[in-house]
Structures are given as structure tokens and as C-alpha cells.
Amino acid sequence: MATQGQVITCKAAVAWEPNKPLVIEDVQVAPPQAGEVRVKILYTALCHTDAYTWGGKDPEGLFPCILGHEAAGIVESVGEGVTIVQPGDHVIPCYQAECGECKFCKSGKTNLCGKVRAATGVGVMMSDRKSRFSINGKPIYHFMGTSTFSQPKAPLEKVCLLGCGVPTGLGAVWNTAKVEAGSIVAIFGLGTVGLAVAEGAKTAGASRIIGIDIDSKKNLESTEFVNPKDHEKPIQQVLVDLTDGGVDYSFECIGNVSVMRAALECCHKGWGTSVIVGVAASGQEISTRPFQLVTGRVWKGTAFGGFKSRSQVPWLVEKYLKKEIKVDEYITHTLTLGEINKAFDLMHEGGCLRCVLSTDA
Ligand SMILES: NC(=O)c1ccc[n+]([C@@H]2O[C@H](COP(=O)([O-])OP(=O)(O)OC[C@H]3O[C@@H](n4cnc5c(N)ncnc54)[C@H](O)[C@@H]3O)[C@@H](O)[C@H]2O)c1
Ligand SMILES: N[C@@H](CCC(=O)N[C@@H](CSCO)C(=O)NCC(=O)O)C(=O)O
Ligand SMILES: [Zn+2]
Ligand SMILES: [Zn+2]
Known about the structure:
The protein has eleven helices and 15 strands. By secondary structure, the protein is an alpha/beta fold. It folds into two domains: 8-158 and 327-358, Quinone Oxidoreductase, Chain A, domain 1; 169-302, 3-Layer(aba) Sandwich (Rossmann fold). The strands form three sheets. Strands 10-9-8-11-12-13 form a six-stranded parallel β-sheet, with helices on both faces. A five-stranded mixed β-sheet has the order 5-4-3-15-14. Strand 6 (133-135) and strand 7 form a beta hairpin. Helix 5 (165-177) packs across helix 6. The longest helix has 13 residues, at 165-177. The protein binds nicotinamide-adenine-dinucleotide, ligand AHE and zinc ion (2 copies). The site of nicotinamide-adenine-dinucleotide has 31 residues, from helix 1, helix 5 and helix 6.
């Protein structure tokens, strides 16, 4: 391959500073070192977490950087020792690694991998603690790292969503909460993540799925819908009253610590479980009366829905190809990389679930 081992130049949207419009720049990308893979990203969606880091709310946010973590592309070249993928493979880069060897991977208790997290948290590659991106010699940080795996002929402009939002919602229900048939489920925040929770709850056989959002346009027919703005009582009380004592499972898919409290407190005494999915801003903390836990409610959280990236995302791609899970339905907008700032605006305007950007146009 002509570009193997070479520095290449690519277009990327660079976040120079928090909240300042992203700028499309020519970025030099160093060749992959041992164990690394260089991927040509063809499609990328925006997840709320990108807006959170760009907005300066992420304690791990580093600038300048190249954001984005819900994508699909083609392996361009590989470093020494890489055997799991080869140039030309279609891949979904995942921010949760799966090395298969560390204490976390071997535990059988979590999808969190300990191998590369320290490096990806500070925007560099593990081997030499350096970035592979630069503009005229100035390093540009990575964001959330990548690991890769091969998957069959799926439309990349759709399955990029399997890099974050859709697996997170489905897995929060199937892996983290393990919702049983007949359960009553409440979902706070009906963006892509919350709607994927609803989809997961439906397939798990939930008897009632109650969606809560301040944007009534997010009301889906398959769910009961509550807009907190329509009620004077605290939303947890509204839900307790609606459900004869509380829900069996609740999911916070917003990133708001007051709502996280409400999501716990709307759970049924004795057994209700609340799962935190939303990412809260730097410095924010959750609180509740310890009595809420003493009386049997359980507070949990999930990253990437508990899915292991390399071993389970290909399974999700297969499920998508067999039409067993929704993906296309969450794509409300398609734009180009050059229109990325408009895509962030759309995210805040309502009516937008996922906006997929094509990078080649
Ligand atoms: N844990 C993980 O692995 C993981 C993965 C993906 C996303 N996330 C996080 O999950 C959250 C949801 O992501 P998304 O991409 O679906 O976001 P989104 O912005 O598309 O959806 C959020 C929804 O919450 C609603 N909302 C906002 N404030 C509300 C309030 N006070 N009460 C009720 N509804 C309210 C909005 O109207 C919107 O519909 C974000 O915090 C994101 O960072 C976490
Ligand atoms: N950098 C933040 C944490 C952000 C966070 O919680 N990220 C989620 C994924 S959000 C995807 O849209 C996650 O998986 N966290 C586990 C991990 O990063 O290992 C902070 O420092 O507060
Ligand atoms: Zn995400
Ligand atoms: Zn590991």
C-alpha cells in the first residue's frame, strides 16, 4: 500500500478551544506504530458526549483535539504485529477497548478494559504516550481512543451508530439492569440513548415503558409519556403515583444529577433499580437520602451498555442486518463533515436524534 508507513494528510474537524466553532483543518496523521491501526473514517454520528466535552464540561477534555466517537470506516494501514484486522477491513472503532488479558477483561464482571484507558483519557497512544495527529508540527489530542474489529458488509453510514448510542441503550437494559418480562420501566431523556433503552425494554417484555422528556416531540407511540413541565409535583412523585408505588427499573439518559436523584427515587421500595447512563458535567455529584438505598433501591451505572467491544459489537451488527434491532430509525439528519457546527446546533434545537456526517463529501 502506497501510504503504509507514511505520514498522510486528512481533513478533520478540530476543536481548538471549548465551545468555539470546530474548524475543518488539514491534519497530518503519523503512521500506526506497533499494535496500532490507522482507520479512514467514512461516516460519523454526533453523540451528546461530544457536545459535553466540546462544551468544556469534561474533566478529561483536552484541547486542541479531534472529537467524535460514534463512527465507521475502513482500515487504511496497520502497525507491526497487528493481525486482527488488515487494510480494507470495515470497522467500527470503539472507545471501550477489549484486550482480553487485563484484570477487568478476565473478571467476567465488566466490559471496562484497563489496558489503554490511562492513555486514552489523556488523548495519546499507549506505546509512546504521543498523539499521532498534528498540524504543522503542533500535536492535536485524540479523544476517547479507539479499538477495532472487523465486521461483515453492513452499511457504514448506518452502523456507525453501533459505536456508542444504540448499544449503550440496549445494553443498559439487557446487560446492566437485566430487565425481566412484566417489569415497569421509566426512561428519563428520550434522545437516541433513551429510545434505545425503550427498544431494549420492549424486547425484554416490559409491561409498561414510561418515557419522560421536557421535549414533547420526543414522545414515541410505543411508550407512555410524561412531560415534567406538565406537573407541579416532583417527577418522582408523579411516577410513584402512576405505578402504585414505583417502577421496577429506571434509566437516566440525560446527564442531569437532579434527574438522576428523581430516577432513583421513583423506583419501587424493596427492589427498584436505577441505572445512570447520562454523563454529568465536571464537578457535579449525585445525592439522595441513604434511606432510599437502605429500603432496597439499587443505584447502578453503565458504560457502553456493558457490551464488550470486540466480541459483542459484531453480534450487534448481525442483529441489525437481520432487522432485530433498530438503527436507521435514529438517524434524523445527514450532513457532511464541513457542516459539523450546524450538526451541533441541530442537537440542541430538538427534533434531532442522530445526525450522521459523511467525511468524503
Ligand atoms: N454511559 C454511556 O456509555 C453513554 C453512552 C452514550 C451517551 N451517554 C450519555 O447519555 C446521555 C444521552 O445521550 P443522547 O446522545 O441520547 O443525548 P440527547 O441530547 O440526544 O438526548 C437527551 C434527551 O434528554 C432530554 N432532557 C434534557 N433535560 C431533561 C430533563 N431535565 N428532564 C427530562 N428530559 C430532559 C432532552 O430533551 C433530550 O431528548 C448524555 O448525557 C450522553 O453523554 C452515555
Ligand atoms: N470523561 C468523563 C467521563 C465520560 C464518561 O462517563 N464516558 C462514558 C462514555 S460516554 C459515551 O458517549 C464511559 O464509558 N465512561 C467509562 C470510561 O470512560 O472508561 C469524566 O472524566 O467524567
Ligand atoms: Zn457516545
Ligand atoms: Zn482488557
